[in-house]
Amino acid sequence: MLRTIAVRAAGLTRSAHLVPSVCRAMSTDSSSSSLVLTDEVGSKGVITLNRPKALNAINLEMVQLIYGAMKRWENTKSLVIVKSVGEKAFCAGGDVRAITETSNVELARKFFSTEYGLNALIGSYRPTYIAFIDGITMGGGVGLSVHGKYRIATERTMFAMPETAIGLFPDVGGGYFLPRLEGRLGLYLGLTGYRLKGRDVHKAGVATHYVESKNLPALEQQLLATTSATEVESVLDRFSESKDAGVEFVLAKHLRQIDECFGAPTVEGIFKRLETDGSEWAQSTLSTLHKMSPTSMVVTQKQLELGAKMDLKTCLKMEYRLAVHHAIDSDFKEGVRAMLVDRDQKPRWKPATLAEVDPVRIEKYFGPLPDGSELQFEDDGPKASL
Length: 386
Prior knowledge:
Helix 3 runs antiparallel to helix 14, helix 6 runs antiparallel to helix 13 and helix 11 runs antiparallel to helix 12. The N and C termini lie far apart (about 45 Å). The protein has a six-stranded mixed β-sheet, with helices on both faces. The chain has a four-stranded mixed β-sheet with strand order 6-8-10-11. Strands 1-2 form a two-stranded antiparallel ribbon. The chain is an alpha/beta fold. The protein is about 40% helix and about 10% strand.
């Protein structure tokens, strides 16, 4: 049976009910005005992001609809595929402009708590979760994919966590998955926002498989016909290239330098090691880092250091504190203005240098929220402290 959740293309102001108000049968073509399309094929489910003109960036309503579909299928489906309409993007991120332009902290709380709840559900989902990350996959799109069991990259995939450039930090569980990449690669990606493309997304360990985009329809068809987890593995292996196929990993020749320079205990230490290195790569990396919010870089370094020792849910609770504190007082609004609204590429960071970053302020970001609220998940037991 084909079911499509039809919704108004509303922004982040709609109430946070997880059950959609309108459900009706509809074809899943890209001309539909629905933001999220769902298709049930026997014991399998398919979720399709359908906001191609916005590069499938997710807003609160989309997060709620995805969450609602996944909860309905949690105990009835054996496999769920998440994909998108269009060739440019799987999901280019979250609708951060809507949060910063209103300066509404409650709106930020609702968006981040709902989004992080979805990230946690993906990380512990009972059905096999497969994301086709075909096209741009950044920020919120990473959160929709990287915590699932399988992530399928294509030659069109472009992965990045560019949050330090907008005065934020790599959230949606970035503190959990980035430090689990090889060596210091995750910290490098999180601080610099470096873009990985195509096969390199697989080679870095962000994707679990690499498949040519032209083969995705056939892959989906065969996955929907599988009858066991072993069969799913077999189908994916048959379609995917081996990780060492093709040319060398784009960062292979710099991995030693990344481990050495980004192994420093502080961001200031990272800068000093890059200056000492002095190579063309080090100078280019320094140039990139000098554009980022100093506060965001210090927060990110600490976030990943702590997240490396946390499970996903605990990490998301830490990131919720960080996100709400950033909505109250940070470079976030200024970063979005400079990079996404006015696009002058000239953010005025406060403070403007690493030396001026106040350690007390950084600790406050990781501390309890002013009203004592914490992120809670549906299946949480008694309230746990970080």
